[in-house]
Amino acid sequence: MPHVEQTIAFLDIMKLVPFPIRLSPYTRYTSADSDAFITASANFTEKQRTIVSTDFLNFVFNLDDWTDEFDATEMEGLQEAVMNTMRYPENFHSDTVTARITRSMLKTNGPNCKECSIDGMESFLRALAQQATDRDLSVIPDLDAYIALRRETSGCKSAFTLIEYAANIDLPNEVFEDPVFQDMMAAANDNISWSNDLFSYNREQSRKDPHNLVAIMMYTHEMGKQAAIEHVGDMCNKAVERFLTIRAKLPSWGPEIDAQVKTYIQGLQDWMRGRAEWSFMTERYFGKDAPVIRKGLQVQLMPVVGTN
Asked: Are residues 158 and 249 in the same domain?
């Protein structure tokens, strides 16, 4: 009997995110040698902020990749090193590119944004440590526990601070502490992290990694692969609908703060659309087949690699 390759079909995630694509005018400056733009200046231009933001995101992506094979002890050491550099730069000095990026960003952040950046990174690393512990103990969380953990392992809380940093705004705590605002951020986070789980599922199923919403739905709801894919796609769509509904319910904090909130909301929308677009512009998830997969929305499943 001939071998038949398994395939899965995606929903068109792009059509489910009703926001236009917006490209920074400084994109051409974000490159491997952009560290040359990182200075001790306390008055960064918009171009410099864009470059530092991009480099910081590359650092977060690398962290995510590095820790895929880390155990809980290794994660503890990494968390301590990164957080000491961010919280106590005067005592824990490092001359790595990553440290210079972090110092430059924190030095030119507003005070509230600075605290959010540090807290966001700490929650991200703490969640990665929990993921490593679950991996060590072969723990598969239930759906609610996974959703809560995924909002942290997505790195969105840290990445969203770049909206303020790049736009040179500094939202007050009263905005971030507002429950409606928090729900809106959670909806954006869910859309980004769940769609990422769709795009990364093929790679993760090949190495038996259960930290993926598709795998969780298959395990907790006894779904087949395609049914789980479609269900997660529907969840992504509902997250966008939830975002739009909550956005309309935001209170007013006065003209000056409302203008900053409007900028922040635009950033969340750019994140939702841009993250999905980026997933098909790189080879991270689909290799050189990304353009074909985006057009046909069909993915051939990779063989499962045995773990020793």
From this structure: no
